[in-house]
Write a structure and sequence with these properties.
binds flavin mononucleotide, about 250 residues, 4-stranded antiparallel β-sheet, alpha+beta, 12 helices, globular, single chain
Amino acid sequence: MKEIKDTLLERRSIRRYEREPIPADQIQFIYEAIRNTPTSYNGQQFSVIDVTDQELKEKLYELTQQKQIKTCSHFLLFCADYNKISTLADLKYIDLPPFTHTMDGIIVGVVDATLAMMSALVAAESCGLGTCCIGYARTAAPEAVSRLLELPQGVFAVCGLAIGIPREKPDLKPKQPVSLIVHQNRYRNDDMGPELLDYDAEIREFNRTRSGATTDNDWASHIIDYYRHAMSYHMLDALRRRGFDANS
Ligand SMILES: Cc1cc2nc3c(=O)[nH]c(=O)nc-3n(C[C@H](O)[C@H](O)[C@H](O)COP(=O)(O)O)c2cc1C
């Protein structure tokens, strides 16, 4: 098992995997790590679909165009889940407030599911496995993914995580310096422009010189292009179809 420092600081997204299953004890460890995730109020408003059926993985690939899903050993879909608490509330004749119709209710589910994904990611990485988060599992075809995996009302996909035995070791991507990410005591009020420009240039240099396919992308334009593309996602409509809404 890797040291925690290497697990966290040497992590990079892995998109190519050996066509081999993960050892059973490792996936059990990943499940236990998911289970012990801290959650808001200990509400545990999340569930995970572990997709190992190759036919289902191929279908998810067709819906998302993310190859990692069909080549990984386990594709875990992390979902916000209010179905379980509603089922129990019904059984115990407890009135459930319309928490799923508040922004905070939605945020609670998203945070719980995301932290669970990070537990799985760290556990998998500590075993030397490769991982890649797949946001397209939420955005590419929300209704079709929900139907395919038979998600009930009150459950929506937040993010996927592909896990497999690594078949590549891409260069570590440079990240923003600590000074831009961690603000001391209060939000920085000095000019962050020069440091942001330096980081933008560092990413462009990395993209020009990294091993494998190179590009001329800087950071800002490239990320903003993704956001421009994401303007066509209509998550609120998708959430409404899953039984969520936000009016407060
Ligand atoms: C929430 C989330 C969603 C992501 N979705 C995708 C995705 O759909 N496809 C993909 O190839 N990578 C995806 N990634 C991986 C990011 O592209 C990657 O983490 C980022 O480029 C930084 O690279 P690194 O993980 O190697 O440090 C996602 C990452 C996160 C955290």
